[in-house]
Design goal:
The structure is a single chain. 43% of the residues lie in helices and 17% in strands. By secondary structure, it is α/β, with parallel strands linked by helices. The chain has a domain at 3-188 and 223-251 and 293-312: 3-Layer(aba) Sandwich (Rossmann fold), CATH 3.40.50. Strands 3-2-1-4-5-6-10 form a 7-stranded parallel sheet, with helices on both faces. A 3-stranded mixed sheet has the order 7-9-11. Helix 4 (96-118) runs parallel beside helix 5 and helix 6 packs parallel to helix 8. The mean pLDDT is 97. It binds nicotinamide-adenine-dinucleotide and thymidine-5'-diphosphate (TYD). Residues 8-9, 11-15, 35-38, 40-41, 61-63, 83-87, 102, 106, 130, 132, 161, 184, 186-187, 193 line the site of nicotinamide-adenine-dinucleotide.
Length: 351
C-alpha cells in the first residue's frame, strides 16, 4: 500500500536504522526524513539510502511550527514516526531547557500538526512516538518495568520524555488522534554517538584514553541491539493497537563495570594488546547526579501480542559493533571534531 511517512530525527543513531529499514523493506512507502542536524544528527549515517527513489531528506526543526506545517502541506503525511529528541542524560543535566524545547514543545508541535491535518479523516493515520524506559525511573535489585509501571522520571532528559509521552496520550484521549508508543531500553550498535557509554568506551580504549566509569560502576542497564529496536518499531507501527504503549527490551542486563570489562577484553583481542591491557585504563569518576540504579524491561506484552523478540546475543552484537567502529574511523573523526571536544572537556574535566 502507498503511504507517506514523516520520520523525525532520522539522521540520528536509532532514526537512521529505522529510516534504512523502512526505505529498503517498503519500496511503496515514501519516507521523508526531517532532522535539524544537531551535533547528534549526521547524514553520513544514511549514505547507503540517500539516492533511493522512496527517500527524501528535509532539514528542519520540530519546534518550528511553520516548517512542520509546510512539510505536512507539501507531503500530506499518512504517518509520523517521531524519534527526534535531545537524548543524552548528561547533557540534560548541563542544559535542561533545550530538552524541554525539543522533547516537549517539539513533540506537541508535531502532535498539533497531525491533529490539524488529519482532522475529519483519521482513518489509516498513525502517530508513532518513540520513547524510553527511563520514564519509569529506577528499579532496585529486582523487578522489571511493565507498561503499567507508574512514571517516575529523575533526570531532566527522562522528565522531558515523560512529559512528551503524556502529551501523546492526551492527544489520543482528547482529540482521538491515532497514536502508538514504545518505551525501549538502552540501544547499542553502529552510528551511536560517542557520548553514550558503549561508543565512548570503544573510542577511548582505541585511543588509550581513560575510561570514565561513574560511581562504582554498579548501575545496571538492559542493552538491545539497535536493529532489533528498529524491527520492533516496524512491528508495532504495523500491528500495535491504537492508543497502546509497548515496552521493548533486550532481556539483557549488565552492570556498567562488567560491560566495560567485556569491551576491554574484546578490544584487547581486536587490537592485538596483551590480555588485561585495556582494563588498566578504567578510571572511576564522580557519579552522575540522580543516577538511576537499574533499568530492566519486561517485553512480554510485545512478545505475546505481536511476536517480537530480540534476534542477537549480546556478545555477538557487541563484537559487530566494535568491528563497525574500528572500520569507520572517518565517521568517528567527523563526529568527534568541533562540539564534541567542548562537551567532553565540560563533562569529564571536573575537579
Ligand atoms: P540521537 O541523539 O542519536 O539522535 C537524535 C536525532 O534528532 C538527531 O539526528 C538530531 O539531529 C535530531 N534532532 C534533535 N533535535 C531536533 C529538533 N529540534 N528538530 C529536528 N531534529 C532534531 O538519539 P537516539 O539515541 O537515536 O534516540 C532517538 C529516539 O529514541 C529519542 O526519542 C530517544 O529518546 C529514544 N530512545 C533512545 C534510546 C537509546 O538508547 N539511544 C533508548 C530508548 C529510546
Ligand atoms: P548512557 O549511555 O549515557 O545511557 P543512559 O544514562 O541513558 O542509561 O549511560 C549508560 C550507563 O553508563 C549509565 O549508568 C551511566 C554510565 N556511564 C558511565 O559510567 N560513564 C560514562 O562516561 C557514560 C557516558 C555513562
Amino acid at each position: 500500500m502507498n503511504k507517506t511517512f514523516l520520520i523525525t530525527g532520522g539522521a540520528g543513531f536509532i532514526g537512521s536504522h529505522v529510516v534504512r529499514l523502512f526505505v529498503n523493506k517498503y519500496p511503496t512507502y515514501s519516507i521523508v526524513n526531517m532532522d535539524a542536524l544537531t551535533y547528534a544528527g549526521n547524514l553520513e549515517n544514511l549514505k547507503d539510502v540517500q539516492t533511493a527513489a522512496n527517500y527524501i531528506f528535509e532539514k528542519g526543526d520540530i519546534t518550528d511550527e511553520q516548517r512542520v506545517n509546510e512539510l505536512f502541506e507539501k507531503y500530506q503525511f499518512d504517518a509520523v514516526i517521531h524519534l527526534a529528541a535531545e537524548s543524552h542524560v548528561d547533557r540534560s543535566i548541563l542544559d535542561p531547557l533545550s530538552f524541554v524545547k525539543t522533547n516537549v514543545i517539539g513533540t506537541v508541535t508535531l502532535l498539533n500538526a497531525s491533529k490539524n491535518y488529519w482532522k475529519g479523516n483519521m482513518e489509516g493515520k498513525r502517530f508513532y512516538h518513540v520513547s524510553t524506559d527511563e520514564v519509569y525511573g529506577t528499579l532496585g535489585e529486582t523487578g522489571f518495568f511493565t507498561e503499567e509501571t507508574p512514571y517516575d522520571p529523575h533526570s531532566p532528559y527522562s522528565a522531558s520524555k515523560a512529559a512528551s509521552d503524556h502529551f501523546v496520550m492526551a492527544y489520543h484521549d482528547t482529540y482521538g488522534l491515532p497514536v502508538v508508543m514504545s518505551n525501549c531500553s538502552n540501544n547499542y550498535g553502529s552510528h551511536h554517538f560517542p557520548e553514550k557509554l558503549i561508543p565512548l568506551m570503544i573510542n577511548n580504549i582505541k585511543n588509550n584514553k581513560p575510561l570514565p566509569v561513574y560511581g562504582k560502576g554498579e548501575n545496571v542497564r538492559d542493552w538491545l541491539f539497535v536493529e532489533d529496536h528498529a524491527r520492533a518499531i516496524d512491528t508495532i507501527f504495523h500491528n500495535g493497537k491504537n492508543g497502546a504503549s509497548y515496552n521493548v527490551g533486550g532481556f539483557n542486563e549488565w552492570k556498567n563495570i562488567d560491560l566495560v570489562h567485556l569491551l576491554c577484553n574484546i578490544m584487547d583481542k581486536k587490537m592485538g594488546r596483551a590480555a588485561g591491557a585495556s582494563a588498566q585504563l578504567i578510571s572511576y569518576v564522580t557519579d552522575r547526579p540522580g543516577h538511576d540504579l537499574r533499568y530492566a524491561i519486561d517485553a512480554t506484552k510485545l512478545n505475546k501480542e505481536l511476536g517480537w523478540s530480540p534476534s542477537l546475543q549480546f556478545e555477538e552484537g557487541l563484537e559487530k559493533t566494535v568491528d563497525w567502529y574500528l572500520n569507520n574511523e572517518e565517521w568517528i573523526k567527523h563526529v568527534t571534531s568541533g562540539d564534541y571536544q567542548k562537551y567532553y572537556q565540560q563533562q569529564y574535566t571536573k575537579a
